Amino acid sequence: MLGGIFAGISFILLIILIVVITYYSRKVSQLNKKITEAQLNSQQQAQQIAQQMYQTWVNQHSQQLRQQLEQSIKQQYEAQLEMWKQQNEQMIRKDAITRSVNTLLGRIGEEFAPLLLADKYQVNPKDFRHLGSPVDYIAFKGLSDDNVDPEVIFIEVKSGKSTSLSERERKVRDAIRNGKVRYEVVSLNDLIGEVQKKINEEINKLD
């Protein structure tokens, strides 16, 4: 009988031992899993920190290298420019003088164009009228001379080397060449009367 009791107790102890071993095995497995996850997280964080530090270092040194390169290129360019200036100083001065003279002559031409044109077209300078747009001048040749039939001349002055006309200027030129020119006498009183008439008509419509 005692043998049966001991056998039962041994069986119970064996079951308890198996349960304890299973429990702690699971605990150990969970702990190992957490340790592994912690190690992976630590490695990932370490890699991220290392990448950030590397990128920061690259950016800093790249900027320094870029600045050094830009400074070197600038110095080389300035040295070459200075050398070119020294080699071409005489030509530069001559070109500057030429441009200044051309500018001055252009301004003189604009101011004294009627005098220059008067000699070219044999027109009394006081018979010139300046418009500016769409033509520069209108000359009434012979207007100040007695016993001479006047001639009306439309003149466009070009100060540059090119004498090409703009679209508006070509339209004016073509209209003159095609004889589309008229002389009109307008009474200002008649114009005012027409405007007053239209105003009265609009007022009457309001009644």
From TrEMBL:
Q: What are the boundaries of the signal sequence? A: none
Please give the superkingdom of this protein's source: Archaea
Q: Which residues form the Holliday junction resolvase-related domain?
A: 17-186
> Is-annotated flag, keyword Cell cycle?
no
Instruction: Give an example GO cellular component term for this record.
Output: membrane
Query: What would be one Pfam family of this protein?
Result: Endonuc_Holl
Keyword terms of this UniProt record: Endonuclease, Hydrolase, Membrane, Nuclease, Transmembrane, Transmembrane helix
Entry's Gene Ontology molecular function annotations: ATP binding; endonuclease activity
Q: Does the keyword Transmembrane helix apply?
A: yes
Transmembrane regions listed in the UniProt entry: 6-24
SUPFAM superfamilies in the cross-refs: ABC transporter transmembrane region (SSF90123)
Per its record, how is this protein called by name? Answer: Putative secreted endonuclease distantly related to archaeal Holliday junction resolvase
Q: What organism, scientifically named, is this protein from?
A: Saccharolobus islandicus LAL14/1
